[in-house]
């Protein structure tokens, strides 16, 4: 750990284009925080395997590798970050305990501008694999993310309070959302992702906290989802405060044995929610060319808020059938929907 930190400080303060190399081999570390500002661009090249220490007392905050306050950062290489999650997942009681201790995110980027993460593998994270928070101009490409389908809260890439983010050409199989978007996500592009197992690609859950920032400009395009518990979805908490989620596009999505392929859920609740309607206003949502097979009979579920119904929702060329070749069904309430092209299942809104 001391060697990593010493090398980081030297690279960060050197000016110009500096490079920090994690060489071939296996290294065991607990929490590491790499802070800026730096005097120039820094590349962290990962060639070896870095394993997380599984003594949770070694993580004062829920991050393992934490990069913050840096302009011009690249983390790349053929190496692997192994969170050793199987040894600590049993400690995750967040579904039962609202005061639970969050387990560490493997790679956390906070207040990073002009950042890149590419080429690396993330294995068995304790919680999220990659977290992008309060970042500007950040690209994730050609990464491989792996955890078992039953692993808890192991989101592949989670984005929040960030602008101009691209996630592309990556393979993500995990126990939670392959990619998820929290509050304050703006102008985010997700393309050419293979997702599965996992919970699909999700905007939300939104509205859990007071005074959340709006979400706008989300594009999910040319992605394949295989054997996932959900497909593409937007979810907001019932009883939430007012915010907006708008200008969202899900386009050219291939489904292979996906449960619940297309979802807007404004009645979401994981525990103890207020029974009042969600006040997250969803608008300008475009589902286009979504085709494939569903493992559930209900393939399209658009359940919007009775307080602020969904506005300007488009469904174009939706063609989903059950794996068994039986026809699928749909449900839709509190939404103004424009239908174009093929509609399988046929959806009508109340």
UniProtKB/TrEMBL annotation:
GO molecular function terms attached to this record: polygalacturonase activity
Active site, UniProt feature: 199
Protein keywords: Cell wall, Cell wall biogenesis/degradation, Glycosidase, Hydrolase, Secreted
GO biological process, one term: cell wall organization
SUPFAM superfamilies documented for this protein: Pectin lyase-like
Subcellular locations according to the entry: Secreted, Cell wall
Gene3D superfamilies named among the record's database cross-references: Single-stranded right-handed beta-helix, Pectin lyase-like (2.160.20.10)
InterPro entries, sorted: Glyco_hydro_28 (IPR000743), PbH1 (IPR006626), Pectin_lyas_fold (IPR012334), Pectin_lyase_fold/virulence (IPR011050)
SMART domains linked to this entry: PbH1
Protein family according to the UniProt entry: Belongs to the glycosyl hydrolase 28 family.
Name the record gives this protein: Uncharacterized protein
Organism of origin: Kingdonia uniflora
């Amino acid at each position: 750990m001391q060697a990593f930190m010493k090398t980081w400080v030297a690279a960060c303060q050197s000016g110009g284009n500096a490079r920090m190399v994690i060489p071939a081999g296996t290294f065991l570390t607990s929490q590491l925080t790499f802070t800026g500002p730096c005097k120039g661009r820094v590349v962290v090249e990962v060639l070896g395997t870095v394993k997380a220490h599984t003594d949770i007392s070694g993580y004062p905050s829920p991050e393992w590798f934490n990069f913050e306050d840096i302009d011009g950062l690249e983390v790349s290489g053929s190496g692997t970050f192994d969170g050793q999650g199987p040894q600590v997942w049993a400690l995750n009681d967040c579904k039962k305990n609202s005061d639970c201790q969050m387990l560490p995110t493997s790679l956390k980027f906070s207040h990073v501008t002009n950042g890149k993460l590419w080429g690396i593998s993330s294995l068995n994270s304790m919680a999220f694999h990659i977290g992008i928070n309060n970042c500007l101009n950040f690209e994730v490409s050609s990464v491989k993310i792996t955890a078992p389908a039953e692993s808890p809260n192991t989101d592949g890439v989670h984005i929040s309070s960030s602008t101009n983010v691209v996630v592309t050409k990556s393979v993500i199989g995990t126990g939670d959302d392959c990619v998820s978007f929290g509050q304050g996500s703006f102008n985010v592009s997700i393309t050419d992702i293979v997702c599965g197992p996992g919970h699909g690609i999700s905007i939300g859950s939104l509205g859990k906290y007071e005074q959340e920032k709006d979400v706008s400009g989300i594009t999910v395009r040319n992605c394949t989802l295989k054997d996932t518990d959900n497909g593409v979805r937007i979810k907001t908490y019932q009883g939430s405060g007012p915010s907006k989620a708008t200008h969202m596009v899900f386009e050219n999505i291939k489904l292979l044995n996906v449960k619940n392929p297309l979802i807007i859920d404004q009645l979401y609740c994981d525990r103890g929610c207020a029974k009042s309607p969600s006040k997250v206003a969803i608008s300008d949502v475009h589902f286009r060319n979504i085709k494939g097979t569903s493992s559930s009979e209900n393939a399209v579920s658009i359940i919007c808020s009775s307080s602020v119904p969904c506005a300007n929702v488009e469904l174009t060329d939706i063609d989903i059938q059950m794996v068994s070749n039986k026809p699928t069904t749909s449900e839709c309430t509190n939404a103004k929907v424009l239908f174009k092209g093929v509609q399988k299942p046929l959806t009508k809104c109340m």
